[in-house]
Amino acid sequence: MNAVVLAVAVMLVLSLLRIHVVVALLIGALVGGFVAGMGLTETITVFTEGLGSNAVIALSYALLGSFAVALSRTGLPKLMVEKAIVLVGKEGESKKKTLSKVLILFIILMISSFSQNIIPVHIAIIPIFIPPLLHVLNELQLDRRLVATVITFGLITPYMWFPVGFGGIFHEILQTNMKDSGLTVKMDQIPTAMTIPSLGMIVGLLIAVFITYRKPRQYEDRTTGMTKTDDISYTTRSIFVAVLAIVATLFVQLQTDSMIFGALSGIIVLYFSGQLKLNTSDAILTDGMKMMSYIGFVMISAAGFAAVMRETGEVETLVKDSAAFIGNSTALGVLLMLVIGLLVTMGIGSSFSTIPIITTIFVPLAGELGLSVMATIALIGTAAALGDAGSPASDSTLGPTSGLNVDNQHNHIWDTCVPTFLHYNIPLVAFGFIAAMVL
């Protein structure tokens, strides 16, 4: 069996058996290295050397977590929760309101979507805004698997479709790697080509909302691990400072293309405004880093896993073997390329990192199959995005879990990864296939 396929399969099976994701990634990497003939020493060396490639991302999330916790001290999350409670009704009345669930889901969808573009702090915002809302979710008896699918939709669809914030990064990586592989595309072609696949995400969301998870689900009201907002007050000035810090973070991030310095600028604004006190700032910022440390460790481990997968050389082998199997069948070729993209992203947990891996082979293969430029963009973009939902090592699944499991009633694999995999990867394969065939 192909080493990459086997390694990803081992990692996924172990994760489904509730083995810790980091341990599953380590064992999966060892299996892949052994099967590829790398040996124990070489596999460990490659894995260790690969850990550093996601160090920037881990530090970015740590600082964004610190910024998010510091931002919570301004009272902005408390204000948002209060407004949400007003929208869904008073305690005891919320179950009687037909539109309450729709309103709260819409709020969560906006928060997660805006974290990708308008306020690009990515998943660091989730552990701050979601835990205070859990009491409201419990009152409404909302299935947290539904909430996870809503958040994941907001984390993925904007970067797939819109060239703003993280979407601008995704589209730029796609354009650059396609050019390096011999196919020049314009940036304004990418949103158009990704429209049909993005519609697949919308279909998956609608199925989750109106069919799969429409029944009420009961949870206990627990305080363990919950974000406490009762002791946090807010004023007009504190909210103004919070907004100013967010604007500073956005501006610096866009100017420097660095989440690290974007988060740093927001923290500096909070320091100089007096909202972040010197005598308490160390504890507050450390708490934020601790909050995001789990995600950082998983992302770093995923980088080591990805390094081993690349070193085996069997991603290219997988693609070439698939190409030989395809023959002249365009439909079969498109389907196999989408499946390969799914396997790669499920393993390394990053659609952004999948693009360079698959583009080198997919561009000439798409040319041999007679696919148009727009079809090739849609194919590669979809193949990269496939697996971001559902991967145990993806920040698009780790983020929702970090907010929904603070009271230990939401399992990362079975309540986030499996639901998002089923509701988004299946429609993405279908709509990505349609896009590649009709564009």
UniProtKB/TrEMBL annotation:
List keywords of the entry alphabetically.
Cell membrane, Membrane, Transmembrane, Transmembrane helix
Bilayer-spanning residue ranges? 6-39, 51-71, 103-134, 146-170, 190-213, 234-254, 260-279, 291-309, 329-349, 361-386, 421-438
The subcellular location is:
Cell membrane
Where it mainly occurs, coarsely classed, is membrane
Topology in the lipid bilayer: Multi-pass membrane protein
Provide GO CC annotations from the record.
Answer: plasma membrane
**Ranges of residues in domain Putative Na+/H+ antiporter N-terminal:** 2-86
**Pfam families in the cross-refs:** Na_H_antiport_2, Na_H_antiporter
Residues in Na+/H+ antiporter NhaC-like C-terminal domain copies: 150-433
* Database matches in InterPro entries: AA_Transporter-Related, Na/H_Antiport_NhaC-like_C, Na_H_antiport_N
Matching entries from PANTHER family are given as: AMINO ACID TRANSPORTER YUIF-RELATED
Instruction: Give the protein's recorded name.
Output: Sodium:proton antiporter
Species whose genome carries this gene: Fictibacillus phosphorivorans
